[in-house]
Amino acid sequence: MRRVILVISILILLAASTYATPDPTIPDVDRVRIAEAFRIGEKLQDQLWNGWSTAPFSLLFVTDDNEFLIRHPKPNNEFKSIGYDKLLKSEVFVRPRKFQKNFLATFPAFGMGPVIVAGKAENTTDTTSTRWVFVLLHEHFHQLQYSRPDYYPSVNALNLSGGDTTGMWQINFAFPYESADVGKKFKETSLFLLEAYRAQNERTRNEALGKFHVSKNELQSMISRADYRYMSFQNWQEGIARYTQYRMAELASRKLKPSRAFRKLADFTTFEAEADRLLHMTLDELRDLELADWKRTVFYPFGAVEGLVLDKTNPRWGTKYFEEKFSLDKLQPQIVTP
After folding, report:
1. What strands lie across the sheet with 90-96, from one edge to the other?
2. How far apart are CA 96 and CA 77, in angstroms?
3. Residue-wise over 222-250: b if at least 16 C-beta within 10 A, else e?
4. Can you give the residue range of the structural domain that contains 117?
């Protein structure tokens, strides 16, 4: 009788183990995408920004049902380890999904430095695997910005939060987007900047930059000091993140071959094609932007093209970028205005 009971107990345990719910896993297509972003970053980041490799590269990857924490030094007790992933070179932790599955942002989650929170390529934007990889590197540049030791005290010193301690003021700041006069002047300034980028020689570039600076000064006089600080901050932060997104794609197109696994993805496109798409998209946005319609997103192409023009007029501007925080104005060379 005891033997019968023992056998039955063993069979019950075996049945339970057979039907136990397995740990959730990251789909292979997403593992390949994430690994490619890590690989490009590790290979090229310090060639573009000195010391970028000192920034964290932790990622909370959001799927339809779960969130996977990768390359994070100390997950909290909400997360369960599902083991070490050799492709991602990291122990991976999981919890049920809390963020929207189309979330895409970087912020100091879990109290341990800035973390990228990103949904799957199919859930975040109308994008291919290659586009998604360079968006992730855009967010990784934010990790470099936010991890600088003086970043948060310096942001607070801008005195733009209006008492908001959540950081949402960076998105919701009451810039005069709806002002027709401000919109018209912003458009004029943007077109002079585009003209400076497209100039074929130093003389015509300087002429365009002279008009750009005059127009930008006139724009500054039309808005409050706080508004101008906010505009400068967004150009410095989001504009140069877009610039970095493009420059990493362009650098990768010249210096790296996509991994074999990444090339095999059904929606693979080349690094060169993505760099070309990003550049033309940014230039077209700068040409077509309307302040009242685009609101905060106008600063992405505006700041990005300011960075591209600086590459032509002050090639070492990046060495001073973190010293001249929250404004690109002092990085511009002196131009004699017409």
Report:
1. 80-85, 90-96, 66-70, 59-62, 115-119, 104-107
2. 13
3. ebeeebbbbbbbbbbbbbbbbbbbbbbbb
4. 28-147
- Rounded to the nearest angstrom, the gap between the alpha carbon of residue 320 and the centroid of all alpha carbons in its chain is 20
Q: How many domains does one find in the chain?
A: 2
CA distance 68 to 79: 9
What's the pLDDT score for residue 74? 85
SS3 333: coil
Going by C-alpha positions, the residue among 218, 180, 210, 178 that lies closest to residue 193 is: 210
Q: Which residue has the tokens 């209006």?
A: 162
In a domain, 37, yes or no: yes
CB neighbourhood size of 5 (10 A): 9
User: Which residues, at least 6 apart from 292, have a Cβ–Cβ distance to it below 8 Å?
Assistant: 177, 178, 180, 183
Q: Is residue 322 part of a domain?
A: yes
Verify that 212 and 309 share a domain, yes or no: yes
Alpha-carbon span 118 to 127, nearest angstrom: 13
pLDDT digit string, tens, across residues 241-291: 999 999 999 999 999 999 999 999 999 999 999 999 999 999 999 999 999
Closest to 248 in 3D by CA, of 229, 271, 267: 271
pLDDT at residue 337 is higher than 60: no
Nearest CA to 95 out of 113, 110, 114 is that of: 110
- Residue 256 is assigned to a structural domain of this protein: yes
The residues near 130 (Cβ < 8 Å, ≥ 6 apart) are 267, 268, 269, 270, 271, 273, 274
Q: Quote the CA–CA distance of 189 and 209 in Å, as a whole number.
A: 10
Q: Taking 90 as the threshold, does the pLDDT of residue 327 lie above it?
A: yes
Closest CA to 197 of 71, 110, 313, 95: 313
- Of the candidates 220, 195, 199, the one whose C-alpha atom is nearest the C-alpha of residue 287 is 195
- The amino acid that residue 143 corresponds to is Q
Place of tokens 């934007």: 125
Q: Which amino acid appears at position 248 of this protein?
A: M
